[in-house]
Design goal:
Elements (H helix, E strand, L loop, with lengths): L7 H14 L9 E9 L4 E5 L12 H11 L6 E11 L5 E2 L8 H14 L4 E6 L5 E4 L1 H4 L13 H12 L1
Parallel strand pairs: 3-5
Antiparallel strand pairs: 1-2, 1-3, 3-4, 5-6
Bound molecules: zinc ion.
Amino acid sequence: MTDSPPSPSALALVAAARAAMHHAHAPYSRFAVGAAVRLTDGAIIQGSNFENASYGLSLCAETVAIAAANAQGRLADIEAIAVAGGAIAASGRIGGSAIITPCGRCRQILNEAEQMAGRTLSILCAGAEGDAVQQHSVAGLLPHAFGPANLGITSGFARAAVESRDA
Ligand SMILES: [Zn+2]
């Protein structure tokens, strides 16, 4: 983890995550989370947490954003993701400067994205407000991960899928 001052592009990605946070469907936890994936061409794809009345089916913002990138055929192009969130007050305001980090399930999803992208992803974590941003790596968040490589699947698999689609 690094606490060095975030770059302008990192701050822009955190801002995009915070914007997505406001679209959270989180009536049960009352905790809104937004995520924003940056692709190699600078495009940004957002996600927000999407809860369900059955609770266990709820989707995290990071998972939604990465799946959305995949749905656009861009899984192999992910280079960074920001996540931000905070509690929803009775007024509807989302606040709190405590930094949030991806849950265990999302760390596994991030590992999948990193291995399919074939590059080290930058994971930016922030609260709903405030200037503090932590930068993490997938390896730091999920050491000794089990991933596609353990099954003989490499980043070339995702690229081949895209190329066959475009052919
Ligand atoms: Zn999660």
